[in-house]
Design a protein that fits this description.
Layout: E1 12-13, E2 27-28, H1 44-84, H2 86-110, H3 117-167, H4 199-239, H5 241-249, H6 257-296, H7 301-311, H8 317-330, H9 335-360, H10 369-383, H11 385-389, H12 391-410
Antiparallel strand pairs: 1-2
Helix pairs in contact: 2-3, 2-4, 2-6, 3-7, 6-7, 6-9, 6-12, 7-8, 8-9
């Protein structure tokens, strides 16, 4: 017979009624002894939540892998595109540099002549056109004659240097391209002059002439086309600089807008100062070399001065090439004239490195010479003459970017003052 208890004691737990029908005394729940184990049963909703979190984690991991792979592929494609279009990109960059130069001259003219930006740019372009036309009309013939004379002198002096080195047992194969002369071989008998050439000789000679002429014309056409591309791009950029600046800023997110605007302004100011200083340095070197070589009595002094001034646009490498050309051109006038020309070259280097560059470009860029030389070698090997000539402005832009990046890294969280 089973009996149900009709009482309830808080804190106590009744045991199951045994089969003999007697109800034992209730025991305390906190009594000593082993406690029955409980099953760790989780609610169904918690299990569903964990499954959803696991799926979300796998989905995020897959998305991260896909995004990383796409970024790597895109970066590789960008590098390949840059590599195959490097000459075009450097040509466009040269146009931007010319536009910065025109804009700088326009701003300088604005300190003297008041007026709209377009009017001052027109005056600058007209002034440059008059100067270039005057140089070509007044000194074009003289420069062409001196350049021809200089070419023949350099070739003859290279032949003299080649013979001098060969007598000392030094390999002169690197000078063969500049001193190639056609001499009849002793082992082959000379053909009679009264024999007419064969049809095959005429055809091969005509093909060679056509190929060489086509190559020369293509080179001239390419040079003229590049000149006009740089000219048109420069005028377009200088005419409306704010339009292109605002166009670049239009693709920048709002939170990076102020920083990008400062970087563009600092880059433009750096290139502007460097270009003006470089033009001043080139002009001074041209005048010094021209006047100095005229005093020494070296033929082709005007052409040598023009070559030295143009080559000074390329730091370090251009100065070395100009010095070699000056010394080779002066060897035909005697050892005294050659030594005087070499002394003039050393004086020009001292003046450029210790007076002109620190004085004119002290506010433009300040890059160690070893860094400039390394960048010129690297870009020259990769992109040829374009990379060699534009290494310094590209390095100046990289310095501006690194300077802003360093400033951002040095800026820490705002300092908090302890309450008084």
């Amino acid at each position: 017979m089973n009996f149900e208890p009709d009482f309830f004691i808080p804190g106590l737990r009744a045991a199951a009624l045994p089969q003999n029908g007697f109800w034992p005394m209730p025991r305390l729940a906190c009594a000593a002894g082993p406690r029955p184990a409980r099953r760790n049963v989780q609610p169904e909703g918690r299990f569903v939540t964990q499954l959803s979190d696991s799926r979300r984690t796998r989905r995020d991991l897959a998305w991260s892998i896909a995004a990383g792979g796409s970024a790597i592929v895109g970066f590789a494609a960008l590098l390949a595109l840059t590599w195959y279009t490097a000459e075009t990109l450097l040509l466009l960059f040269a146009g931007v540099l010319f536009g910065v130069f025109l804009s700088a001259l326009t701003d300088l003219l604005g300190r003297v002549v008041s007026g709209y930006h377009t009017l001052r740019l027109t005056l600058v372009c007209a002034l440059l056109t008059v100067v270039m036309t005057g140089v070509m009309v007044l000194g074009g013939a003289t420069i062409a004659q001196q350049a021809t004379l200089l070419n023949s002198q350099i070739r003859s002096q290279l032949g003299t240097v080649k013979n001098f080195l060969e007598q000392r047992g030094i390999d002169t194969s690197f000078l063969e391209a500049a001193t190639v002369t056609v001499t009849p071989s002793a082992s082959q008998p000379a053909e009679p002059r009264n024999n007419l050439p064969s049809a095959g000789a005429i055809a091969s000679g005509t093909t060679a002439i056509i190929t060489q002429t086509t190559r020369i014309l293509m080179g001239v056409f390419g040079g003229v086309a590049n000149f006009f591309i740089v000219l048109v791009l420069g005028v377009c950029f200088a005419a409306q600089p704010s339009v292109y600046r605002d166009g670049v800023l239009g693709f920048v997110p709002r939170r990076y807008l102020a920083k990008t605007s400062r970087i563009l302004d600092d880059t433009g100011e750096t290139l502007r100062r460097w270009l003006l200083g470089q033009i001043g340095t080139m002009t001074v070197i041209f005048l010094i070399v021209w006047i100095g070589l005229e005093i020494i009595g070296i033929p082709g002094a005007l052409a040598l001065g023009l070559i030295s001034g143009l080559l000074s646009f390329i730091p370090t490498v251009g100065a070395v090439i100009a010095g070699v050309v000056i010394v080779l051109a002066s060897l035909g006038s005697g050892w005294v004239a050659a030594a005087s020309a070499f002394g003039l070259y050393l004086f020009m280097q001292f003046l450029e490195g210790n007076i002109l560059t620190p004085l004119i470009q002290r506010r433009a860029i300040s890059i160690p010479p070893a860094t400039i030389f390394a960048a010129q070698i690297f870009l020259g090997v990769l992109f040829g003459l374009w990379g060699l000539g534009l290494a310094l402005p590209l390095l100046a832009i990289a310095k501006v970017l690194l300077t802003h990046l360093k400033e951002d890294n040095n800026l820490g969280p705002p300092a908090t003052t302890a309450p008084s």
